[in-house]
Amino acid sequence: MTTPRPGRPVRGSSTGRPLMAALDLLGRRWNLRIIWELQDGPVGFRALRQRCDNMSSSVLRQRLTELLDARLVRQQADTAYGLTELGHGVYRALRPLVRWSDAWASEMTEDGGA
């Protein structure tokens, strides 16, 4: 599976619109979690795997390859992985969604989820 890129058809859209490519990339299992776990600084492969509920090594490698290709993650000289400025931008863009999801969870808890 190739890394989604703006200007190319992606899953769910043949237009190649940047938003659709971003949603395809971020909608792939584990990609958001990896970005979330790297928000506070670089992490080595083993530690990142542990932070991601011990996902399989092969899946983590595949996801890191996609995120490296998308320029959201970089591998440092010491082999740790960290977010690029674009990667930090994704995290900052998600902050309003985090606040919304907290409000949603609170609302669902107040009325029993009905």
Q: Describe it for me?
A:
The protein is 55% helix and 5% strand. The chain has 114 residues and is mainly alpha-helical. It has a domain at 29-102: Winged helix-like DNA-binding domain superfamily/Winged helix DNA-binding domain (Arc Repressor Mutant, subunit A, Orthogonal Bundle). It has a two-stranded antiparallel sheet with strand order 1-2. The N and C termini lie far apart (39 Å). The model has no long low-confidence stretch (mean pLDDT 92).
Main β-sheet description = 2 strands, antiparallel
- N→C terminal distance: 39 Å
Low-confidence stretches: none
The total beta strand count reads 2
The CATH class label of the domain at 29-102 is: Mainly Alpha
Q: How many individual helices?
A: 5
**Strand content of the residues, in percent?**
5-15%
What structural class results from the helix and strand content? mainly alpha
CATH architectural designation of the domain at 29-102? Orthogonal Bundle
Strand order in the sheet with the most strands: 1-2
* Rg: 16 Å
Shape: globular
Instruction: Specify the CATH homologous superfamily of the domain at 29-102.
Output: Winged helix-like DNA-binding domain superfamily/Winged helix DNA-binding domain
